[in-house]
């Protein structure tokens, strides 16, 4: 049986941390900023830790990355 392949789209978007969590960029950052406050826009910058329910799904896509 061949090896399972890592989902490349997921691998480019999510990174595994040293403690086993996953981090990713924030959603809602591509357009429609006129409807968001300055505080919202500022807090959407950078990366966030994924919550545990989402991690279970993406672990399968990322295999051992």
TrEMBL record:
Keywords: Ribonucleoprotein, Ribosomal protein. GO terms for biological process: translation. Residues 1-44 are annotated as: Disordered. Gene3D superfamilies: 4.10.410.60. InterPro entries: Ribosomal_bL35, Ribosomal_bL35-like, Ribosomal_bL35_CS, Ribosomal_bL35_sf. Residues 31-44 have a biased composition (Basic residues). Transmembrane segments: none annotated. One of its GO terms (cellular component) is cytosolic large ribosomal subunit. GO terms for molecular function: structural constituent of ribosome. Signal peptide: none annotated. Belongs to the bacterial ribosomal protein bL35 family. This is Large ribosomal subunit protein bL35. The lineage of its organism: Bacteria, Bacillati, Bacillota, Bacilli, Lactobacillales. The gene is rpmI.
């Amino acid at each position: 049986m061949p090896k399972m392949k890592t989902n490349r789209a997921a691998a480019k978007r999510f990174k595994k941390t040293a403690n086993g969590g996953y981090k990713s960029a924030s959603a809602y950052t591509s357009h429609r900023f006129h409807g968001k406050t300055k505080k919202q826009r500022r807090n959407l910058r950078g990366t966030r830790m994924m919550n545990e329910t989402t991690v279970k799904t993406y672990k399968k896509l990322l295999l051992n990355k």
